[in-house]
Design goal:
Strand content of chain B: 15-25%
CATH class of the largest domain in chain B: Alpha Beta
Structural class of chain B: alpha+beta
Helix content of chain B: 25-40%
Largest sheet of chain A: 5 strands, mixed
CATH architecture of the largest domain in chain A: Roll
Mean pLDDT of chain A: 96
CATH superfamily of the largest domain in chain A: Beta-grasp domain
Helix content of chain A: 25-40%
Number of strands of chain A: 5
Number of domains of chain B: 3
Order of helices and strands of chain B: EHEHEEEHHHHHHEEHEEEEEEEHH
Radius of gyration of chain A: 15 Å
Largest sheet of chain B: 5 strands, antiparallel
Oligomer: heterodimer
Shape of chain B: globular
CATH topology of the largest domain in chain A: Ubiquitin-like (UB roll)
Strand order of the largest sheet of chain B: 4-5-10-6-7
CATH architecture of the largest domain in chain B: 2-Layer Sandwich
Largest interface: A-B, 28 and 28 residues
């Protein structure tokens, strides 16, 4: 067993785990943060996307030991003081989800998209979402939510 | 899916990584892990130890050496895609990096990992061969022409670690990829580059290993325009055939994508 420590959603968290423990299992099983989902378990679907040191990664394709000492953000850490993040708010308003299974990964990816490309258009949003699969919506409302959130973030910065 | 047990090591320097690799039996290097981790989860790969080289800083440098652009083996695809230095000197390379996998994969996957794996449909091998790059390892320098030896195989020896890859700067270059719409891997990807007195054409996805097309190179060295190669046919013999496309289909695509790449390199819309 290996003692692994990382900062998850601004809290220092540790656990003794096997080296072969995937990051997604560490988050869900050791820390009880079940907002990060396991969809395909083959790094296709993006339901497990979290941020590690500010980068979006698929937590089913990374070992928890690789994130030892890292700063990790999961969907549970996105809202602040009980107030939804603007991206979460936009998903709610535009109905950017149906069953909701892909939503945590979608939002974690959307946060990165908006951060890197504040002036993103709809076509690029769809392209940036190639690693996140949704079986319900047809992506239409997800793209609308991200487009709107990007505008709101850009407006707030200005 | 859970892999078989293994012992994890994370060295902080290249020398430490080398001694671990030499002393641990059945150890594998872990760079971004975007191929190795899925393979381990499927238990197709079962190393006894993993040596994570992501903390070795000297492996992730991007340096402009004048005639060449040198990129560290540990550079992530997202870093190459966003690097100002790459965009200014070999924009075709940053565009290629931006097209690998998806955003999350690009934030983990590395240049060195991609070329060491030499997947028949990987993008980077086409850039290495198409630009005539040199792979520098802990033991020697190998030209891309000698490095890629076959399907999932390279000239790398046991215990050898790729440090960086040096790309000669072309006059112009471009990569055109026909993606499988589901996997986004290249059905056929063609990298073309024009140099002062020569041209290079490298094809990925079409065959078990990336390869050059000398006939196209000669034609493009004479006149670097799409029409120079439109009549050049590739033999389907030895090309990949699967449910997504026959060997004949891929052979046809090579010429189509090579022309598109030349157009892109010339800055004309495809």
């Amino acid at each position: 067993m290996t003692a692994v420590t990382m900062v998850v959603n601004s809290e220092r968290r540790s656990a003794d785990i096997e080296d072969r423990t995937l990051l997604v299992h560490f988050l869900r099983d050791a820390l009880g943060l079940t907002g990060t989902h396991i969809g395909c378990d083959t790094s296709q679907c993006g339901a497990c996307v979290v941020h590690v040191n500010g980068r979006p990664v698929k937590s089913c394709t990374m070992f928890a030991v690789q994130a030892h000492g890292a700063n990790v953000l999961t969907i549970e850490g996105v809202a602040e003081d009980g107030k939804l993040h603007v991206v979460q708010e936009a998903f709610r308003e535009h109905h950017g989800l149906q069953c909701g299974f892909c939503t945590p990964g979608m939002i974690m990816t959307a946060l990165d998209i908006i951060d890197r490309r504040p002036n993103i258009d709809r076509r690029m949003i769809r392209q940036e979402l190639t690693g996140n699969l949704c079986r319900c919506t047809g992506y239409q409302n997800i793209a609308s939510a991200i487009e709107d959130a990007a505008k709101r973030v850009a407006g707030a910065v200005r | 899916m859970i892999p078989y047990p293994f012992a994890y090591h994370r060295p902080n320097s290249l020398s430490e990584a080398q001694s671990l690799l030499a002393s641990l039996p059945d150890a594998k290097l872990l760079a971004g892990g975007q191929t190795l981790v899925p393979a381990m989860k499927l238990r197709l790969a079962n190393p006894a130890a993993l040596i994570d080289i992501s903390n070795v800083r000297e492996l992730s440098l991007i340096r402009d050496d004048g005639a060449n652009l040198s990129i560290g083996a540990g550079a992530k695809h997202a870093d190459v895609a966003q690097s100002v230095s790459v965009k200014q000197t070999i924009p075709a390379l940053s565009a290629l990096a931006e097209g690998i996998g998806d955003s999350a994969v690009r934030h983990m996957g590395t240049l060195g990992g991609s070329v060491a794996n030499n997947d028949p449909a990987a993008d980077y091998p086409a850039a290495c061969l198409g630009l005539g790059a040199t792979v520098r390892t802990t033991r020697r320098s190998v030209s891309a022409d000698d490095f890629f030896t076959g399907m999932f195989s390279t000239d790398l020896e046991d215990g050898e670690i790729i440090i960086d890859i040096s790309f000669p700067k072309p006059l112009r270059a471009a990569y055109a990829k026909f993606e499988n719409p589901a996997s986004r891997y290249a059905m056929v990807g063609v990298f073309v580059a024009q140099f002062a007195a020569s041209a290079r054409v490298a094809v990925t996805g079409a065959a078990p290993c990336v390869f050059r097309v000398p006939e196209m190179e000669a034609a493009l060295a004479g006149n670097f325009i799409p029409d120079s190669i439109s009549a050049i046919k590739i033999s389907p013999e030895g090309l990949n055939a699967d449910i997504h496309g026959s060997a004949e289909y891929r052979a046809h695509l090579v010429t189509v994508m090579a022309k598109r790449a030349v157009k892109l390199a010339l800055g004309t819309p495809t």
